[in-house]
Design goal:
Radius of gyration: 34 Å
Structural class: alpha+beta
Helix content: 25-40%
Number of helices: 3
Strand content: 15-25%
Order of helices and strands: HHEEEEHEEEEEEEEE
Distance between the termini: 134 Å
Number of domains: 1
Shape: elongated
Length: 271
Amino acid sequence: MYCRAGPFIVSGQKGPNLISEEKEARGRRPRAAFTLVELLLVAAIIAILAALLLPVLVRSKTSAQRLKCVSNLHQLGLAAHLYWDDNNGNCFRYGGTATNGGQLYWFGWLGPGSEGQRAFDASQGALFSCLQGRGVELCPSFQYFSSQLKLKATGATYGYGYNLFLSASAREAALNVSRILRPAETTLFADAAQVNTWQSPASPDNPMLEEWYYVDDVTNQPNAHFRHNQRANVNFCDGHVALEQCLPGSIDARMPRQFVGTLRPEILRLP
């Protein structure tokens, strides 16, 4: 009897064709996806990294804002020195003089009207020509978009206050810089703001923060703004800028989280 020869397969072994087919099938098999546990682990790692990086980013932003404020105050101080040079060493007055239907202050002209609706003209300010325009009058750490802020004019005006003890009244001769015996210890400008409870939309039940344009040593209506990690940038009469803490116990209790308080009297008053 004749029998056709064919491939000889030993029991338990696979032929070459079958092995090749299995290899191709394995090549076409989809790769396994991440398991739920693996995805949760990755998400947890990302969350931990974000938690570690976020405070660093916040501190970097805060530091950049404070340095911009320092630069602003440096330039305001230089402008004041130029003013003194042009005016025989006489300091400019805080102002409040009635003119053109409004009031003229050291920082500009503020028109009549309701809070937040007044016209404002910075070009009439004492330092405008020395500054050659605007750009350094607003502190980036002042929260101008806060719902707790009440503007004086139709827009932001000034975020810094002038040392009121350097200002003479309209009936007195201007104070001369020769009377500033300790310029490195005497405030020229500082971060300023105050809490308002008497001009709408502010009220005793709805106290609001507002820009303020001078600093003095009163404690019942404080006006220095400690907005840089509870410290204020202060420009001194010799030109340097330094951080100052508030007078202990002077933070305005009506809005304690805004850190409006009083500077040390010894860096405000003249000896």
